[in-house]
Design goal:
A hairpin with a 2-residue loop joins strand 10 and strand 11. Helix content is 26%, strand content 26%. The chain contains eight helices and 15 strands. The chain is of the alpha/beta class and 297 residues long. The longest helix has 20 residues. Helix 1 packs parallel to helix 2, helix 1 packs across helix 6 and helix 5 packs antiparallel against helix 7. A seven-stranded mixed β-sheet has the order 5-2-1-6-7-8-9, with helices on one face. A four-stranded antiparallel β-sheet has the order 10-11-14-15.
């Protein structure tokens, strides 16, 4: 079966890498063009880097007639983490499968992995479905489930879901015909894009909610707060048994405690603005006195 792969992001790159390791290369990969790097200059997106490493035929969709090019493709079109809206004329051909890292209709939209952890979901998975004109609303071809341990970060779940996505796609490829599809069932929810405001910690919320936000932001964004005049990202934390008032800060030589609506949070790995990541003991050695008498806002 001829098939092409359309993707650009980190999750899509993980899936492509897994497919290649299993010996099933696409005929061509479509991605988006180079983007500005955090430290300046332009660089390839994750999927393009995988293509260059494996010498795959890759074509950038920016600046070309994407609809016309994809309509001319023969065989199956598999999309995953593309960042590109497929035109109606293309999805109506019923040749476009989408791999989505959630159990649809749970967490439709651009940031399902983040919202799965942010919401404390204990189960997640991947959905392989026929694309239609809606946002992740198409008929389900196959779903694979995965349990989500409470200690998992975003990266942990991302890895597990990429493995499930590879398994789901290979199972479909192994068939002589495509499995029977079915409509999505259940209450839909929308996973909006991750932004800075979403990552700010609300210390008036329960400790579990703060903990979930921290692990949802790790290791790519970081949940953040302000203590006095110090802006601080919290990359990892634990929940304490002690109780403090929301936003109250207690510092000793061994650690830092911050109050929430119920139990306190113990930051483990942090990063002051403009500095590198560091363990809490190292952070307090340089900043401990500056936190005395302060609160988290």
């Amino acid at each position: 079966m001829r098939w092409v792969y359309c993707s650009s992001g980190r999750f899509g790159a993980r899936v492509l890498q897994g497919i290649l390791e299993r010996g099933r290369a696409p005929s061509r990969v479509y991605t988006l063009g180079d983007r500005r790097l955090p430290r300046g200059g332009l660089g390839p997106l994750p999927v393009k880097r995988v293509c260059l490493e494996h010498r795959l035929d890759v074509l950038e969709l920016d600046g070309i007639d994407a609809e016309g090019v994809l309509l001319e493709e023969e065989g199956l079109i598999v999309a995953c983490d593309i960042g590109f809206i497929f035109p109606p004329n293309l999805v109506r051909t019923r040749r476009c499968l989408n791999l989505h890292p959630s159990l649809l209709p749970r967490w439709r939209g651009p940031a399902p992995i983040f919202w799965t952890i942010r919401s404390g979901d204990k189960e997640s998975g991947v959905s392989l479905f026929w694309m239609d004109e809606g946002i992740d609303t198409g008929r389900i071809v196959r779903q694979e489930q995965v349990s989500v341990p409470i200690q998992w970060s975003y990266a942990d779940l991302e890895r597990a879901l990429a493995e499930k996505a590879v398994s789901a796609l290979l199972e479909v490829f192994s068939r002589s015909d495509l499995p029977t599809d079915r409509p999505q069932e259940g209450e839909p929810s929308y996973a909006r894009k991750v932004d800075r405001d979403l990552l700010r910690i609300d210390w008036n919320s329960p400790a579990e909610g703060v903990y979930n936000l921290v692990r949802a932001g790790s290791p790519y964004w970081g949940a953040w707060t302000i203590i006095g005049e110090i802006e601080l990202k919290i990359w990892w934390a634990e929940i304490a048994e002690q109780r403090l008032a929301p936003g109250e800060v207690v510092v000793d030589k061994k650690g830092l405690m911050i109050g929430t609506a119920d139990r306190a949070i113990l930051p483990v790995e942090v990063q002051p603005a403009g500095k590198r990541r560091m363990g809490i003991v190292e952070f307090l050695a340089g900043y401990g006195r500056k936190l005395e008498g302060k609160r988290c806002e």
